[in-house]
């Protein structure tokens, strides 16, 4: 199963599912055929493609192979509902794919993205007497207010739910990681021959044992070279004590690996990035490193590294939407 942005051509599938759910799930709550499919597809298309607004709008669909399972849509919430919030505008799932944790995964898809836009609350408008209302209460939604909407002239009570996004994301993750893989969650347990169990359940101590075992293997197989020079090269740029950029590097096998490289947008193009990378390289070389290497994506900074004399030695171009990952190196 994959969750991805819907294409313009796929919006019709989403609107048709919306129409079907309104007629089936909300029967008796709102008048039949309250939605006109042609009008709604025009509205959604314009809503998504309105370049004049300062909103952020997304619609994602869930697919199993060629089968469309359901979709979710979100946008920045109205300020009167949440000062820094995201509104879940759509969440519809085909009946045969319900109760398989898909709703949790679709909501999470919106929250994970919008959280990077500094939103901290989720808003959902939902018919008070609908079955989906129970789902949102199950997720701990609080009633911010109630309003009356009038589809086809019928007055219908609507609950406006609100959540703290951090709390909701923790709850969703807990439900997904404790729900079995067979029921759409991430929990997995299987008995293997010889009394061995394959499981997704582990403790911090378990993780430490595995990492320590791998590290010991690697150090012994490289006769200690893995731990040379074993210097963390972390350089920060600060203005009045506030970080505006940094380069974070590991060193191993007499090489330097650039793990993180970031400059605040307001300070780019002024030579700060070049200064950081050259100083990190100098420290690495002075401590015995013979080359530096890193990887970066096409939407990040491949041209910057090339300008710093890094050479592309491999690339991975199997990502969607034309995204390419570049692997680069430079002799020191």
TrEMBL record:
Pfam families the record matches: Acetyltransf_1
Superkingdom to which the source organism belongs: Bacteria
Stretches of the chain forming a coiled coil according to its record: none
InterPro entries named in the record: Acyl_CoA_acyltransferase (IPR016181), GNAT_dom (IPR000182), N-term/lysine_N-AcTrnsfr (IPR051556)
CDD domains according to UniProt: NAT_SF
Keywords assigned: Acyltransferase, Transferase
GO molecular function per UniProt: acyltransferase activity, transferring groups other than amino-acyl groups
Annotated ranges, domain N-acetyltransferase: 1-163, 197-332
Protein name: N-acetyltransferase domain-containing protein
Protein species of origin: Clostridium tagluense
């Amino acid at each position: 199963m994959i969750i991805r942005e819907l294409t313009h051509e796929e919006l019709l599938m989403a609107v048709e599912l919306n129409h079907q759910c309104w007629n089936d799930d909300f029967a008796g709550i709102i008048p039949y055929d309250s939605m006109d499919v042609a009008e709604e597809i025009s509205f959604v298309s314009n809503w998504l493609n309105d370049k004049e607004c300062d909103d952020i709008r997304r619609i994602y669909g869930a697919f199993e192979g060629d089968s469309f399972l359901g979709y979710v849509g979100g946008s920045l919430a109205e300020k009167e509902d949440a000062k820094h919030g995201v509104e879940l505008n759509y969440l519809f799932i085909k009946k045969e794919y319900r109760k398989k944790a898909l709703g949790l995964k679709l909501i999470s898809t919106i929250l994970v993205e919008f959280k990077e836009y500094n939103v901290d609350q989720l808003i959902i408008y939902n018919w008070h007497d609908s079955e989906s209302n129970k789902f949102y209460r199950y997720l701990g939604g609080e009633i911010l207010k109630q309003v009356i909407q009038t589809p086809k002239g019928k007055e219908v009570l609507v609950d406006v739910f609100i959540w703290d996004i951090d709390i909701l994301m923790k709850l969703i993750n807990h439900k997904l990681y404790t729900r079995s893989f067979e029921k759409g969650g991430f929990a997995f347990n299987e008995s293997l021959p010889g009394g061995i169990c394959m499981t997704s359940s582990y403790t911090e101590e378990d993780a430490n044992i595995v990492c320590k075992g791998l590290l010991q293997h690697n150090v012994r197989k490289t006769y200690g070279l893995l731990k040379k020079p074993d210097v963390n090269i972390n350089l920060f740029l600060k203005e009045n004590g506030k970080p505006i950029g940094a380069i974070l590097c590991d060193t191993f096998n007499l090489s330097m690996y650039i793990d993180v490289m970031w400059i605040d947008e307001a300070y780019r193009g002024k030579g700060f990035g070049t200064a950081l990378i050259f100083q990190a390289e100098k420290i690495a070389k002075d401590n015995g490193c013979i080359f530096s290497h890193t990887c970066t994506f096409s939407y990040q900074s491949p041209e910057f590294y090339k300008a710093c004399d890094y050479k592309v030695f491999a690339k991975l171009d199997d990502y969607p939407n034309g995204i390419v990952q570049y692997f680069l190196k430079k002799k020191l």
